[in-house]
Amino acid sequence: MADPAGGIKIRNLYKIFGQHAQEYVQSVANGMSKTELLEKHSHVLGLRDINLDIPSGTIQVIMGLSGSGKSTLIRHINRLIDPTSGEVVIGGKDVMKMNAAELREFRRHQTAMVFQKFALLPHRNVLENVLYGLEVRNIGRKECVETAMRWIERVGLKGFEKRYPNQLSGGMQQRVGLARALSSDAPVLLMDEAYSALDPLIRMDMQTVLLDLQKEIKKTIVFITHDLDEALRLGDQIAILRDGIIVQQGTRQDIVLRPADEYVANFVRQVNRGKVVNVDAVMAPLKTNTATSANVLSSSQTIEEAVRVVAGFPNTDFTVLDANGHAVGYANLGMLASALVSNGEEHAATGAHVVTPIQSARVSK
Question: Within 13 A of 77's CA, how many CA atoms are on the CB side?
């Protein structure tokens, strides 16, 4: 059963586009390629056997190139697209089995969506756009306005509530879209390429806004992007799609340190590991019968931060402490430096959920 607070479980999800899609599910499950399905049967493979567990209160990034299936996947969560087979369970209920009335209520109360192109109503000002979702739920006008104004202020648009979309910059319009989604207080927030239309500096600013808000609101966020830097900055978990298949799932450290194949390795090759990988990913177990050092590092520090600390002590082992102050390992300058230059091709079994393209996303195959 899914977490009733907003966790999501996706199981054996297939999407094939075509008039006789159901007839080809088993063939695709048995390994029929996207190319063969199209050339021989004139059907298009959207998703193949997707399995994801998204814990409540986390940011799950889905990334991949154009045509990989990432937007198709997010649209299954609120059933803007019906699957060929499979299930999406939220709050203990399979969205795919809801009738029209149940689905309407689910969309109104359980999910909210932020779109790439903002999707603001041009004839409504900022305030009226933000409160629209509350208005259609027949909430009183006074409460609608109070809630909308609270979120307008939280996203940094206080004083702009009477402006119309064409009077706002792209970044400001996207803040309106975010405020509108948050005002519904839905536990699940879906963000489909929400920042990709923004200039780089505005995009980074919006990422910061989202991360700061998430510390408080703890929504279950599914964030679609084709940008690796954005995925690494935002994602608690990252799933990489290729041709409708999940080729790798894991934390940002899993993805960077243990790419599943050459496709993923090409994505992460230019990543600055020092900003992504934490000390706990490279530390060694404490030496038996050895006293802990007075020199300490935090397990959550990035390698870049840790190198600044240990740079003046090249021959010293530093004790690594977890969030509770318990010694959990040790690290030194050599270990940290090695992690920065490692080729990352060792796919060590250290918890990363790795799925090869041939496996179709069912890990047990």
Answer: 32
